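Researcher: We're teaching a course module on how sequence relates to structure. For the next exercise, students receive a sequence and then see the predicted structure as tokens, so they can try to spot secondary structure elements on their own. Here is the exercise chain.
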Amino acid sequence: MDTLRLDVGPVEGVSPLGRPSKYTEEFRRDAVDLVRLSRRQINQVARELGMSHETLRNWVRAAEPHPDGSGGLRGGVVSGGQGRRDRPPAA
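Model: And here is the predicted structure for the students to work with:
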């Protein structure tokens, strides 16, 4: 009988849905570096790598440091000229 694990967290090589990751950590790092260093759009780099642009966009966002310099990760701003446009506050 399968056991339900309550200590679910990021595990290297496993997707958030618990299945094996399609991409290695090295590939992820190289793809993010390619976006940052080439200054090409995420869509273009993703197409060249044969992957989803949304997946690559998520990786680039996750690799950005916090603006307060704490060294953690944040989502929202993408390097390579792909910054997110923030919406004005709702009235």
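Model: If you want an answer key for the exercise: Confidence is low (pLDDT under 50) at residues 3-11, 74-87. The helical segments are 25-38, 42-49, 53-63.
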